[in-house]
C-alpha cells in the first residue's frame, strides 16, 4: 500500500468517526468536538440566530457532544428541547452533560437517525442542525419530513463549517448555497444566509415553514408566472 492511499484510508476513517462517533476513537472525536473552541463558538452563534423564546419546543438533529443542546435548554427554560443522534456514544455523553435538565424533563435525547424520526406529541417551534446534514442519507427528503414537524411559521437553522483539508471561505459559501437550495426544495421559505468569520467561516442558513395559505400561494407562483405579478409580494422577511 502506498503512503498516499494509507493516508486516504486514515482520513476516511477519521471523517466517518465525525459522522457517527463510536468505540474508543469515537470517544476521542467526542472529546475534540466538545473542547474545540470553534465548535463551541459556532454552536452558540447558530443558537443565537434562531431567536429561541422561553416557551419554545426545539429539536436539534445530530447534537454530538451537546454544546447547542445545553444552550437551547438555557434559553427555552419553560419549553422543551429534543435531540436526536444516531451515535450511541454521543447520546451517552450528552445525556451526562445535560443530566439535570433531563431529570426535570426539559430535555429529551433520543438515540435514532434523522431518517427514522420519532413521534412528537405537539408541533415544534424550531429545528437546528450544525455540521450534521452532510452525513444524512437523503437530506432533501429528511428536511421535508422535518418541516412536517414544525408549526406554520416555525424556524430552521442549518449550519456548515467545512472541515475538509484546505477548506476556504469559498468552500463555506458553496456549502451555504447547498443548504439554501435543499431548504427551498424541501418547501421552506424566506431562506437567508449568515456567515461567522472563523477559519474556515461558518455558513448558517435560516428559513421558515410557511403558513398553509402561503404554501398555496407559493405553489401557485410555481405553476403560473402571471400569478407572480398578480398575487405575490415578497413574503415578510424571517425574524
Ligand atoms: C460532526 S458532528 C457535529 C456535532 C455537533 N452538532 C457540533 O456541531 O458539535 C455530526 C453529528 O451528527 C450525527 N449524525 C450524523 N448523521 C446522523 C443521522 N443520520 N441521524 C442523526 N444524527 C446524525 C453524528 O452522530 C454526530 O454526532
Question: What do you see in this structure?
Answer:
With 239 residues, this protein is an alpha/beta fold. It has a seven-stranded mixed β-sheet with strand order 3-2-1-4-5-7-6, sandwiched between helices. The longest helix has 17 residues.
What tags apply to this protein structure?
239 residues, alpha/beta, Rossmann fold, 7-stranded mixed sheet, 10 helices, 7 strands, globular, binds S-adenosylmethionine, methyltransferase
**Average pLDDT reading:** 89
Ligand kinds: S-adenosylmethionine
Determine the CATH superfamily: Vaccinia Virus protein VP39
Shape: globular
Domain module tally: 1
Largest sheet: 7 strands, mixed
**Helical segment count:** 10
- Number of DSSP strands? 7
Radius of gyration: 19 Å
Q: State the distance separating the first and last CA atoms.
A: 54 Å
Structural class: alpha/beta
CATH topology: Rossmann fold
Low-confidence stretches: 222-239
Strand order of the largest sheet: 3-2-1-4-5-7-6
Q: Summarize the amount of helix as a percent range.
A: 40-55%
CATH architecture field? 3-Layer(aba) Sandwich
Topology:
Blueprint: H1 3-19, H2 23-35, H3 37-49, E1 57-61, H4 67-75, E2 80-85, H5 88-97, H6 99-103, E3 107-111, E4 124-130, H7 139-147, E5 150-160, H8 169-185, E6 189-196, E7 202-208, H9 212-223, H10 225-231
Parallel strand pairs: 1-2, 1-4, 2-3, 4-5
Antiparallel strand pairs: 5-7, 6-7
The structure holds S-adenosylmethionine.
S-adenosylmethionine binds near residues 85, 113, 114 and 136.
Summarize the structure.
With 239 residues, the chain is α/β, with parallel strands linked by helices. The protein has helices at 3-19, 23-35, 37-49, 67-75, 88-97, 99-103, 139-147, 169-185, 212-223, 225-231; strands spanning 57-61, 80-85, 107-111, 124-130, 150-160, 189-196, 202-208. Strands 3-2-1-4-5-7-6 form a seven-stranded mixed β-sheet, with helices on both faces.
Amino acid at each position: 500500500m502506498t503512503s498516499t492511499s494509507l493516508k486516504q484510508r486514515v482520513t476516511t476513517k477519521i471523517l466517518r468517526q465525525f459522522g457517527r462517533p463510536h468505540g474508543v476513537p469515537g470517544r476521542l472525536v467526542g472529546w475534540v468536538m466538545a473542547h474545540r473552541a470553534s465548535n463551541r463558538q459556532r454552536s452558540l452563534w447558530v443558537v443565537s440566530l434562531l431567536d429561541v423564546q422561553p416557551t419554545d419546543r426545539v429539536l436539534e438533529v445530530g447534537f454530538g457532544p451537546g454544546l447547542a443542546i445545553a444552550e437551547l435548554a438555557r434559553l427555552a427554560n419553560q419549553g422543551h428541547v429534543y435531540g436526536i443522534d444516531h451515535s450511541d456514544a454521543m447520546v451517552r455523553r450528552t445525556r451526562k452533560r445535560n443530566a439535570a435538565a433531563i431529570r426535570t424533563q426539559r430535555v429529551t435525547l433520543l438515540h435514532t437517525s434523522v431518517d427514522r424520526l420519532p413521534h412528537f406529541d405537539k408541533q415544534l417551534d424550531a429545528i437546528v442542525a450544525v455540521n450534521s446534514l452532510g452525513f444524512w442519507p437523503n437530506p432533501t427528503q429528511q428536511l421535508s419530513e422535518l418541516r412536517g414537524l414544525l408549526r406554520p411559521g416555525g424556524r430552521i437553522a442549518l449550519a456548515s463549517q467545512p472541515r475538509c483539508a484546505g477548506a476556504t471561505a469559498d468552500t463555506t459559501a458553496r456549502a451555504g448555497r447547498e443548504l439554501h437550495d435543499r431548504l427551498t426544495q424541501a418547501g421552506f421559505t424566506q431562506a437567508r444566509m449568515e456567515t461567522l468569520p472563523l477559519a474556515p467561516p461558518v455558513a448558517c442558513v435560516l428559513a421558515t415553514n410557511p403558513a398553509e395559505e402561503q404554501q398555496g400561494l407559493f405553489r401557485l407562483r410555481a405553476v403560473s408566472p402571471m400569478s407572480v405579478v398578480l398575487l405575490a409580494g415578497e413574503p415578510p422577511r424571517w425574524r
